Amino acid sequence: MADSSEAGPTVFVLFGATGDLAKRMVLPAFFRLAMHDLLPEKWLLVGNGRGDVSHEDFRQHVSEVLTEFGPKPADGPWKEFSANLRFAGGGFEKSDPGSLLDVLAEAKAELGEDAQFVHYLAIPPTAFIKVTEGLGEHDLATGSRVVYEKPFGTSPENFRELDDAVHRVLEEHQVFRIDHFLGKEGTQNLHALRFGNGLFDSSWDREHIRAVQIDIPETLDIDDRAEFYDETGAFLDMIVTHLFQVAAEIAMEPPLSMKADDLQAARESVIAAFRPLSRDEVVFGQFEGYTDTEGVAPDSTTDTYVAARLWIDTDRWRDVPFLLRTGKQLAEGAQRVSIIFRKPGDGPLSHDTPVVGNVLTVNLEGSGAIDLRVVVKEPGPEFELATGTTALPLAEVADADPLPPYVKLINDVVLGDRSLYTRPDGLGHAWDVVAPILDDPPTVLPYARGSWGPDAAKALADPDGWLLGS
């Protein structure tokens, strides 16, 4: 794997450095990069926020974050890592850059005038435009790379407004719209499975596949994200972003190569073939007690659960349902892609073979795993058919060195590799696909905590049923 250790001097600017996303995902990812020796030889990380925090206090904050969320400081090169941490307070926007310009001037004096800027916007999407305009106003955009967290836009109109604002300041090749599901080892293995194995390459189409399920149930509550979540909901938080992107990875036509431009073009081309969602093929739910959560309006109708049936209008996938499901406070937590193959159409066992006998499942959690369910003869004196499953944890592949998605994606930013990042044309069409639901959303149905969501969602997966929870 290419790594960023040979990159030139780099200054990372982390906007929202003391926020929840930075604590849980971004700061631990930077420390893991240091543990894997994947940071440039010369680098600095400058945190930015509204508070007036000293460099030393920020180092202490990062140490506490790593102690809570891991990896712990003692598990890696903390002394060397912490020496490269800085903080610039006072916020940042077009009219007031706070202390950021002064701290960045000191950083350039330390690393050299040719240092590469990587700006990481770990902030609410409502602040993206303000910070982007600030980058342009204060001459921090030229030659830089800018990472935008999801969601890139909160509505079709807001997406277009944000996209216009970004392109007034930045060229497209400078923009890295992150979706960490694309950085998962399991997601990347969808390509390896399909394009690297004749077993699947020749059967990856409607003639051989009867349905696809992308199932991301969560047992988690909304934690301290109540305010954000109540403004967003499961549909915008997960379907428009993660699950659509995973569906595109499965359904894309073979790219000309695995290079960034070809991979992005194939991904965005298939998203353009997503049929707009139909209201009668989408189920919204809200777990009981949600409105008792601090920070949630007592009359909130925000969806904490969504199940949807997506159709892809290409010759390869026409009439194959892509079933998407996600939600909070469900019976089980998982991140699974299940590709259900058709049973043999003829032959001596065609009538006896189970309908859901062949399933390729890719587990997206952690380091990922691949499961394959096949039809076998049940051992014994009679010729009876049964199903068996073989499993391959990806971490057990020879010489495996799996990287968490944020680590992989930040490494790619330093390399300038946009293969696993989204483009505006695909995102724009994704908003078109969900527009009918945003304009006329289905009724939000209650469901019990610890259940599999509203019963109405079961019919979406007929005749096979949801493989999880069935």
Q: Which terms summarize this structure?
A:
470 residues; 12 helices; 2 domains; Rossmann fold; six-stranded parallel β-sheet; Dihydrodipicolinate Reductase, domain 2; alpha/beta
Give the helix/strand class. Answer: alpha/beta
Question: From the alpha-carbon coordinates, what is the Rg to the nearest angstrom?
Answer: 23 Å
Spell out the helices and strands N to C.
EHEHHEHEHEHEHHEHHEEEEEEEHHE
State the helicity in percent bands. Answer: 25-40%
The outline comes out as globular
For the record, the CATH architecture of the largest domain stands as 2-Layer Sandwich
Description:
The protein has 470 residues and is α/β, with parallel strands linked by helices. The chain has 2 domains: 146 residues, Rossmann fold, CATH 3.40.50.720; 243 residues, Dihydrodipicolinate Reductase, domain 2 (2-Layer Sandwich). 33% of the residues lie in helices and 19% in strands. It contains 12 helices and 15 strands. Strands 14-13-12-11-7-10-9-8-15 form a 9-stranded mixed sheet, with helices on one face. Strands 3-2-1-4-5-6 form a 6-stranded parallel sheet. Helix 1 packs across helix 2. The longest helix has 26 residues. The protein is globular and about 75 Å long. The two termini are 39 Å apart.
